[in-house]
Amino acid sequence: MGYYDLPAVIDFILGATESKNLAYVGHSQGTTELLTLLATRPEYNEKIRVAALMAPVAFLDRTKGTVRILAAFNGLLSRIAKLLGIYKVLTNSYWIHFVDTTLCEKTAPTILLCENFLFALSGFDRQQFNMSLLPLIADQGPSGASIKQLEHFGQLSNNGGKFTMFDYGRRSNMQRYGTPHPPEYKLSNVKVPVHLHYGLNDWISGVQDVTKLSRLLSNCTVKPVPYPKFMHLDFLWAKDVDKLLYRDMISMIGDR
C-alpha cells in the first residue's frame, strides 16, 4: 500500500491539478503508508510539501488493550487463517453490514456494545465520543483488511521495537531481501517536514513510540493533543476535534 498504492494516488492528484507537490494528512495506517513510501522511494520527498501525521504508527512497542492481546497470537492466527483459506477479514459484506447496522441502531439495546467495542480497541473516551455518529460509523464500515496487512502489524508488535518490512520466514527473506531477517525501513530517507500529532490516551500509537519515531526523523515537530483522554479514534470523531486539533493542524500545514 505504501510502495504501490499511495504513490499512484499522489501522482494522479499532481497530474490532475498540475501541481508540483501537495500536503499530506494521514491517520494511523495512513501514516505508516507514507513512512513506508518515503523510506523505500525517497524521490517522493520532492512531491510532498509537508505531512501531518495523526496517531502515527511505525513502532508498536507500547501498544496495549485488545490489539496487544491479538498481536500476541499473531503467528497462530495467521496460520489458522491460511489453513482455512481466509485472506481478508471484515469486508463490507451484506451479513456484516446487516449485523453492524442492526446492533448499532440508535434505538437498539445493544448500542453500548458497539461503543465499548470501539473503546476496547483504541482507548476509552466517552466524553468526546458522539453517540449519534455510531449508526453512521457502523453503516460505512468496516471496509475490510487483508490478513497479510494485519499480520505485518502483528510482526511490528513483536519484533523487538523495529520498523521492518514483512517477515516471510528465513528462506523467503533470503530470496526477497538477501538477509535472513526483514530489513528495517530507512527512516533517514524521510526528508519531508513532518508534524506528529498524538493522543495521550492512545492505546495503539503510544506516547513513547511516537517519541521514538520523532528521534529518527530529520525534520520533525511533535505535538500532543491538549486533552488527556484523547484516544486513537478521537482523531476522526471527537466532538471537539476541530477545536482541539484540526484548526492548529491546518494552520501548521498552511505555514509550509
TrEMBL record:
Highest taxon of the lineage: Eukaryota
PANTHER family: LYSOSOMAL ACID LIPASE-RELATED
Name this polypeptide is given: Lipase 3-like
High-level lineage: Eukaryota, Metazoa, Ecdysozoa, Arthropoda, Hexapoda
